[in-house]
Design goal:
- The protein has a six-stranded mixed β-sheet with strand order 1-2-6-5-4-3.
- The chain has helices spanning 5-17, 44-51, 54-68, 127-152, and strands spanning 18-20, 32-36, 78-80, 90-95, 100-107, 111-119.
- It is of the alpha+beta class.
- The protein contains four helices and six strands.
- It has a single domain (5-152), classed as RelE-like (YaeB-like fold, 2-Layer Sandwich), CATH 3.30.2310.
Length: 160
């Protein structure tokens, strides 16, 4: 990262709120993948990938690698949530065999942030899963604004 204030802010946000999924594999030229560290509890996406079987891990790894490299993801692997109310910044990765989904958001600096995961039992994501993803996204945004305000003395533009 460069010497600009925005880069320093981004580094501080990453250090305070995020955890790399895999520093060797998912820090691609276009995007970098992180788990969000929620204020309370664990990250369901991290739990899924840490405890899932080989097929699940390799399936998601292939999708994450493509996304990091800026490749277009097929519809059967990636789905944005724009059609649902207040979900314009959310999307999910799909693993068909396990019927699981990992919910993500993107942020400035090419960040892909894994927020949540669940096993899909119906055609549409359950209302709880959507609300949980929205809650985690909003919590991340709030906490990010607090980190930046602490760095800049209250000026959220990134300039001191």
């Amino acid at each position: 990262m460069g010497e600009g204030g925005g880069d320093r802010n981004l580094e501080r946000v990453i250090g305070a709120l995020l955890e790399p999924v895999d520093k060797r594999r998912f820090m691609g030229p276009r995007h970098s993948v992180y788990y969000y560290r929620p204020e309370q509890g664990s990250n369901a996406a991290k739990d899924l990938l840490d405890n899932g079987g080989t097929a699940l891990k390799s399936g998601y790894a292939a999708t994450l690698t493509k996304h990091c490299n800026g490749d277009r993801l097929p519809r059967d692997k990636y789905h944005d949530w724009k059609q649902w109310k207040d979900c314009d910044s959310l999307a999910d990765y799909k693993h068909r065999q396990s019927k699981t989904r990992i919910v993500l958001m993107t942020d400035e600096g090419g960040l892909i942030i894994l927020l949540h995961a669940f096993k899909k039992t119906e055609d549409e994501a359950k209302t709880y899963e959507v609300k949980e993803a929205q809650r985690l996204r909003d919590e991340y945004r709030y906490r990010k604004s607090q980190v930046i305000a602490a760095i800049t003395g209250g000026d959220r533009s990134g300039k001191k």
